[in-house]
Amino acid sequence: MTRMTTGLLAALLATTLLAGPAAAQEAAIRKNLGERLPQIGKIDEVTRTPMAGLFEVRVGSDLYYTDAEGNYLIHGQMIDARAQRNLTEERVNKLTAIDFGQLPVKDAFTIVRGNGKRRLAVFEDPNCGYCKRFERELQKLDNVTIHMFLYPILGNDSVEKSRNIWCAKDKAKAWQDWMLRDQAAPAAAAACDASALERNRELGRKHQVTGTPTLVFADGTRVPGAINAAQVEKQLSQAQ
Question: What is the pTM of this model?
Answer without folding.
Answer: 0.74
